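Re: folding output
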Amino acid sequence: MAITRYSDKELEAELVKRERAKKVRDPLPLHLMDFTALITNVELCILARIKSGRRDTDDVQYIFEDAVEAVYGKGVFEELNSL
């Protein structure tokens, strides 16, 4: 892949992205994890499925996000999305 295929603006954006990635901290689990939101969301998803018989396709995503935030903290996705 030739570098000449990319504009200066695209190359500069890639450099900025790489510099941001260098500043992101290694994921370290919290010393005191709070699973309250995760447990609540799982319970709500289960109850919704029982009551309606339908499965919300976003349930898995919400549960995943709650689990990651419980282990790594509330700001983890903002940090990842900044890359």
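--- second protein (sequence, then structure) ---
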Amino acid sequence: MGAIFGRRSSPAPAPTAAEEKAKEAQERQEERAETQEKTEMQAAQQRRRTRRQGGMRLLFSPLRREGPGAGGKPPGMSEAEYLALLRKRRGGTQTTTGSAPQKLG
């Protein structure tokens, strides 16, 4: 109705520096939220993929050694740990030489 009497409406005021900063901050937040959502989705996909393929990876793992050719201690295990593991598997707690404990080294 302002045009009836010949007055024109004034243009919208220019945004202030604070409004511009707030707008830029909001845009950055939205961008961060989008990237975070994307990485979360990728992580979920990776977990599903790992669950799906995990059994096959373990089945054909070089660390899994079974059969007649698989002997000796696993790499990274000390001799004492390996002997303790063998005793535990066999169900015995006796030492290999008499009743005195032996220091392996």
